[in-house]
């Protein structure tokens, strides 16, 4: 059987929806080629994508599959995070802890063949958000409530008796 080779053209794009929230997916595109380098034009293929942690051989954090058909240039596009889940949850991938890698595998009918693994890098939107201008300061929130008054403490001990003061001056004699 012919060995199939995929030449990856990595296009990773995070887009923002009108709510200014990032969708839970990103684009991936590649060109499918046969063993001699010719594009597989208008060909149905099965693709398996895995997100690996820390290195190209690291733990698989997330894996999904896709059934796609290449176009007239041999190109196929998928949305990582929107395929048929094999393992993991896309929303729980710890993107902020260490490098992440994407592994792509293709099944042309005889089982999945590893086509390579690449490190996921920043996209323009992420670079802008890290270095872009700060937005306006929001409105001040409502004042909080005061906490409950604490309990009164116990009565203290009686202090020691003080010393007697000095004797006062003798008064004037009285009249009869």
Outline the structure in words.
The chain has one helix and eight strands. With 176 residues, it is mostly beta strands. It has a five-stranded antiparallel beta sheet, with no helix packed on it. Strands 1-2-5 form a three-stranded antiparallel beta sheet, with no helix packed on it. β7 (100-107) and β8 (112-119) form a beta hairpin. The protein is rod-shaped.
List keywords for this structure.
single chain; 176 residues; mainly beta; three-stranded antiparallel beta sheet; disordered N terminus
Largest sheet: 5 strands, antiparallel
Which series of helices and strands comes N to C? EEEEEEEEH
Unreliable residue stretches: 1-19
What is the first-to-last residue Cα distance?
145 Å
Percent in strands: 25-35%
Global structural class: mainly beta
């Amino acid at each position: 059987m012919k060995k199939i080779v995929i030449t990856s053209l990595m296009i990773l794009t995070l887009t923002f929806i009108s709510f200014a929230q990032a969708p839970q997916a990103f684009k991936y595109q590649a060109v499918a080629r046969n063993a001699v380098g010719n594009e597989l034009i208008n060909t149905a293929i099965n693709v398996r994508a895995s997100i690996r942690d820390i290195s190209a051989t690291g733990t698989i954090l997330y894996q999904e599959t896709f059934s796609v058909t290449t176009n007239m240039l041999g190109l196929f596009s998928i949305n990582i995070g929107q395929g048929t889940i094999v393992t993991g949850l896309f929303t729980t991938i710890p993107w902020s802890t260490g490098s992440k890698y994407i592994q792509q595998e293709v099944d042309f009918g005889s089982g999945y063949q590893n086509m390579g693994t690449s490190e996921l890098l920043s996209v323009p939107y992420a670079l802008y958000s890290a270095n872009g201008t700060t937005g306006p300061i929001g409105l001040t929130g409502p004042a909080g409530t005061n906490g409950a008054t604490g309990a009164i403490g116990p009565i203290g001990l009686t202090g020691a008796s003080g010393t007697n003061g000095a004797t006062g001056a003798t008064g004037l004699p009285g009249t009869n």
